[in-house]
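pasting for the record
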Amino acid sequence: MKKCNLDCISKYGDQLYGVFRVLVGLLFFMHGAGKMFGWFGGSAQALGSLVGVAGIVETLAGLMILLGLWTRLGGLAGAVTMLVAYFYVHVGGGLNPLTNGGEMAILYFVAFLVIMRDGAGSWSLEKQFWKKERF
């Protein structure tokens, strides 16, 4: 079995980023759809509530990232949502994310920063439709 060194990683970097973007988008979509529709083991929330609004943003941003349509805009929406979630919901339990339950909000926030930096990548509907990124 051949080892994969840094050359191998850089050779397949675009594909690895595509897998990363699709998985982050899918999981964020699942969080939002759980809040909006009760799918994936979630419970539907009133759409006018703070959790309901978060569900709408998570569903739309997750789809944007998953499909590679307006990906950076979706990343921005997700990052802002995760900042609000961390400071509004989690920080009341202390600053340590391991004890206040905020580690997923921080991980998503950092993932969205990467997505905002790198955009849609080559596996995206933006590149398919317009041959470039729109936002």
